């Protein structure tokens, strides 16, 4: 019976998930592979093109996901991976748009193969959040254990609440967490640096201009950085939007970070443009304003864009029709 159940689960994965995979997501056999894939470049704004904040890093044989916003599991499947294949998850902070895909990743990973606890790292509150998710989904868990005999070991979670330090070292991959400044009430809020084989990627998390981020991003090959832009009139007229803007990084301030950190390639993600006639107009403004403070190479990120990390990073774009 167990063998039949295992076969059924395998066939279900093949039928449901494999049709969504794309060529850019095929796993490399090269143990030195170091690739970043933007699973979600969006914000709380509902968008079918920009899913919630989430970034995949594949380094050697390690697969790590940073934040799990809306639709992260779908983007993983389009990239050719299942949640069960991720070695560890890392959270920058606990705003809903960075964690509201966690339930799907956690439960779907269990349904399709996870037999060991899910490893997750994040700020204070991470353990309570995961325990609360377990309570919220307890009826589903009980039913699947009784009816489908899924192992309880696979629904378990090892939640690590971390502070600024090196927090993960496996197979030559080192992850360092550091504090950033996302405003007075959102503490701690984290950025992450991933080092592998002499190369490095930094993820800013949500932050305004942060000297600590600049310090930890020194001489990184790739910096994935948030950005927010609103027209001056909206900023002056709306206290709400002033407050939101003051918790994020303007294009000019991002340019300062790029320049002072000495990175080789900057990629914008968590792209928040508001108050323009359309998103492209806002993005054009982001580009123009960034260039007033930075004359290096930067890209506007899109979902499922990949970056091959090396001494000369390379961007691999996709056709938007694949989204």
Structure description:
It is a single chain. The strands form two sheets. The chain has an eight-stranded mixed beta sheet, covered by helices on one side. The chain has a seven-stranded mixed beta sheet with strand order 7-8-9-10-11-12-13. Helix content is 32%, strand content 25%. The chain is globular. The protein has helices at 2-17, 72-79, 96-99, 102-111, 126-136, 138-148, 211-216, 232-237, 239-245, 251-261, 279-290; strands at 34-40, 54-59, 62-66, 88-90, 118-122, 157-161, 165-170, 173-179, 190-196, 199-203, 222-229, 265-273, 298-300, 306-308, 314-316. The chain has one domain: Metallo-beta-lactamase, Chain A (4-Layer Sandwich). The chain has eleven helices and 15 strands. The longest helix is centred in the N-terminal third of the chain and has 16 residues, at 2-17. Helix 10 packs across helix 11 (279-290). A hairpin with a 2-residue loop joins strand 7 (165-170) and strand 8 (173-179). It is of the alpha/beta class.
Whole-number radius of gyration? 20 Å
Terminal-residue CA separation:
38 Å
- SS-based class: alpha/beta
Q: Just give the CATH class.
A: Alpha Beta
Q: For the record, what is the CATH homologous superfamily label?
A: Ribonuclease Z/Hydroxyacylglutathione hydrolase-like
CATH topology: Metallo-beta-lactamase, Chain A
The overall pLDDT average reads 91
Provide the low-confidence segments as ranges. 1-29
Give the SSE map.
Elements: H1 2-17, E1 34-40, E2 54-59, E3 62-66, H2 72-79, E4 88-90, H3 96-99, H4 102-111, E5 118-122, H5 126-136, H6 138-148, E6 157-161, E7 165-170, E8 173-179, E9 190-196, E10 199-203, H7 211-216, E11 222-229, H8 232-237, H9 239-245, H10 251-261, E12 265-273, H11 279-290, E13 298-300, E14 306-308, E15 314-316
Parallel strand pairs: 3-4, 4-5, 5-6, 10-11, 11-12, 12-13
Antiparallel strand pairs: 1-2, 1-14, 2-3, 7-8, 8-9, 9-10, 14-15
């Amino acid at each position: 019976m167990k063998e039949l159940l295992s076969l059924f689960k395998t066939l279900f994965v093949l039928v449901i998930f494999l049709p969504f995979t794309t060529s850019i997501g095929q796993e490399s056999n090269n143990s030195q592979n170091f690739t970043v894939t933007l699973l979600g470049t969006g914000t709380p704004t509902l968008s079918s093109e920009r899913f919630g904040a989430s970034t995949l890093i594949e380094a050697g044989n390690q697969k790590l996901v940073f934040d799990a916003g809306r639709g992260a599991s779908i983007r993983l499947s389009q990239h050719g991976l299942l949640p069960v294949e991720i070695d560890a998850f890392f959270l920058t902070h606990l705003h809903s748009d960075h964690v509201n895909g966690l339930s799907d990743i956690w439960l779907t990973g269990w349904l399709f193969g996870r037999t060991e606890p899910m490893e997750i790292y994040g700020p204070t509150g991470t353990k309570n959040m995961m325990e609360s998710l377990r309570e919220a989904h307890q009826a589903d868990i009980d039913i699947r254990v009784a009816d489908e005999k899924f192992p309880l070991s696979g629904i378990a979670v090892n939640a690590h609440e971390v502070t600024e330090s090196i927090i993960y070292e496996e197979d030559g991959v080192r992850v360092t967490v550091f504090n950033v400044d996302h405003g007075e009430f959102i503490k701690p809020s984290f950025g992450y640096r991933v080092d592998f084989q002499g190369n490095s990627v930094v993820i800013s998390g949500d932050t305004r201009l942060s000297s600590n981020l600049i310090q930890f991003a020194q001489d990184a090959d790739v910096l994935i950085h948030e950005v927010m832009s609103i027209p001056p009139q909206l900023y002056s007229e709306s206290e709400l939007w002033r407050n939101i803007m003051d918790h994020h990084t303007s294009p000019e301030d991002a340019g300062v970070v790029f320049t002072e950190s000495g990175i080789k390639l900057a990629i914008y993600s968590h792209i928040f443009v508001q108050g323009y006639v359309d998103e492209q107009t806002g993005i054009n403004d982001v580009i123009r304003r960034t260039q007033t403070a930075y004359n290096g190479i930067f890209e506007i990120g899109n979902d499922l864009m990949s970056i091959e990390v090396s001494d000369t990073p390379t961007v691999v774009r996709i056709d938007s029709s694949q989204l």
